[in-house]
Amino acid sequence: MKRPSRHFIRLAAAVSAVLLLGFAPAPSPSPSPSTVPAYSIQAIRYGTIRGFPVSALVMGAPEEEKTDIAMVVWLIRGGGHNVLFDSGFHREVWLEQFPTADYLRPDEAVKLAGLAPEDVTDIVVSHAHWDHMGGIDLFPKATVWIQKQEFAYYTGDAWQPGGKHGGIDPDDVKALVQKNVDGRLRLVDDDGVEILPGIRAYTGARHTFASQYIRVAGDPAFVLASDNCYLYRNLAERKASATFSEADRAANVKNQARMIELAGSADRVVPGHDPKQFEKFPTQGRVAKIR
Ligand SMILES: [Zn+2]
Questions:
Q1: Structural domains of the chain ordered from first start
Q2: Element of type H or E holding 106
Q3: Given 81, 183, 206, 212, which is the most exposed site by the fewest CB atoms within 10 A?
Q4: pTM of the entire structure?
């Protein structure tokens, strides 16, 4: 039998090298802990709505019970990003409908945390309601992150016959579309998507068509719930927030349990409108330091 030529041996070596490289394991896509910035998290209170019915916040609560709710945006800073979770509101029509005590426009409120409005790099919008998406036009340089289905629904079917748009301001929707045509909008496609290193969005609680909440990684991690969990009482009593439809209440309760799991403790789930977050965490004036 003929021995293989030197040419054949060189060729075989080259082929095996290509095969080896081709089958080499790809580097892990999840960032190592060192690539997640040490984010700070602050809650900034821009107003208070007094005497709000608890039954509209905690399903099944007594009709006559009232509470004062905090109007809040959250600021997450780290890794060169200044991220707002929700943007508050400023339109007169809502101030008339929901008289807000100690109201301060959200861009002014953010200054109290030492940040100029034009330095907000990102706004993660939990959902399209007036008091959460209504401030996106106050932060001119920010990129807005919203769930793809939330964007599609409230710029489309919500305004068609049979659509639901309670609590959605048409001017906010126009501002959202403006952000998109300006190249300052990112659509978050579904559940468990990492928006920025260590900041991940979750869906399924269905406060609106496709509301989202976020987990901020770190030591320790926190979950910012927005209206997917209005009050600490929702968590304690395992009661749903108001949801897009009655059929979604079970999904909301299930997601509140998931929030506790994702945060590692119910103490580290921050509800959307609970004034207790300004007692639980060290607070100066309108600003609480969550982490
Ligand atoms: Zn709200």
A1: 38-289 (3.60.15.10)
A2: helix 106-111
A3: 183
A4: 0.88
